[in-house]
């Protein structure tokens, strides 16, 4: 005959029984599912953050380069009789500008153009072997110091336009600009738009476009993948030392 104490003890042990094998398998499966979803979201978050950091850095570098170019080009021709653009070294992917920044300083070397920042060239060093490609790296070269400086890497397109007056334009998604200013006598383009000058020494207004490419992040078809993309920027500069009446 069992005592009441023995019966209560037996019931207590029965109530403390663990999980069954099926319950453990279900619980483990749910845990792995949650961990997998969390890992996917975390990977996607890291990819997005990495991409946005790279995008921010690339855009900041491009904007800094355009600001630097705008400053130098705006000062082109200072203390000179011409606009300061060197014809032979200026085209659609490079521009060389000269200025006598200390022309009125009263120093012994004020008449020369041998100082820092008085003879500068911006150019695209192409890294693609395709002759039709506009991809490369944007450099600033100080002729007097014989020093070059990398401004922007991974440039997908870099174009410079030369006009004798201010123009209106829109950005072309494929690169460059579309001029919307109506043409004038002697400067009509093929579609009636204002055309560029044929002689850079007649330039009074410069438009520069810069397109940078952002590489893909992650693997196609995998969580967190972000495809490649492009960012296009532009700046326009009036040469303040020439034909100010146009502005």
Describe the model.
The longest helix has 54 residues. The mean pLDDT is 81. The chain is of the alpha+beta class. Strand 5 and strand 6 form a beta hairpin. The strands form two sheets. A six-stranded antiparallel sheet has the order 1-2-3-4-7-8. A two-stranded antiparallel ribbon has the order 5-6. The protein has one domain.
Helix content: 25-40%
Proportion of beta-strand residues: 25-35%
Briefly note the structural class of the backbone.
alpha+beta
Assembly state (oligomeric): single chain
Question: Main β-sheet, in a few words?
Answer: 6 strands, antiparallel
Count of DSSP helices?
Answer: 2
Number of domains: 1
Mean pLDDT metric:
81
Compute the separation of the termini in Å. Answer: 114 Å
List segments where confidence is low: pLDDT < 50 over at least 5 consecutive residues. Answer: none
């Amino acid at each position: 005959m069992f005592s009441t104490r023995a019966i209560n003890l037996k019931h207590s042990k029965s109530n403390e029984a663990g999980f069954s094998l099926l319950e453990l398998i279900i619980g483990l499966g749910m845990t792995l599912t949650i961990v997998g979803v969390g890992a996917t979201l975390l990977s996607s978050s890291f990819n997005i953050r990495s991409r946005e950091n790279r995008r921010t850095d690339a855009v900041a570098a491009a904007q800094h380069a355009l600001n630097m170019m705008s400053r130098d080009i705006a000062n082109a021709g200072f203390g000179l009789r011409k606009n300061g653009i060197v014809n032979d070294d200026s085209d659609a992917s490079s521009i060389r500008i000269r200025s006598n920044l200390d022309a009125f300083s009263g120093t012994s070397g004020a008449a020369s153009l041998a100082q820092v920042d008085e003879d500068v060239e911006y150019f695209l060093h192409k890294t693609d072997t395709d002759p039709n490609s506009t991809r490369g790296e944007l450099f600033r070269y100080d002729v007097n110091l014989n020093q070059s400086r990398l401004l922007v890497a991974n440039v997908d397109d870099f174009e410079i336009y030369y006009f004798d007056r201010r123009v209106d334009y829109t950005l072309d998604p494929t690169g460059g600009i579309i001029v919307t200013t109506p043409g004038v006598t002697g400067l009509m383009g093929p579609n009636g738009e204002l055309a560029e000058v044929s002689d850079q020494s007649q330039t009074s207004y410069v438009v520069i476009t810069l397109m940078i490419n952002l590489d893909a992040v992650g693997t196609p078809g995998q969580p967190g993948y972000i495809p490649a993309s492009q960012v296009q920027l532009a700046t326009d500069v009036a040469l303040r030392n020439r034909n100010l009446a146009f502005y």
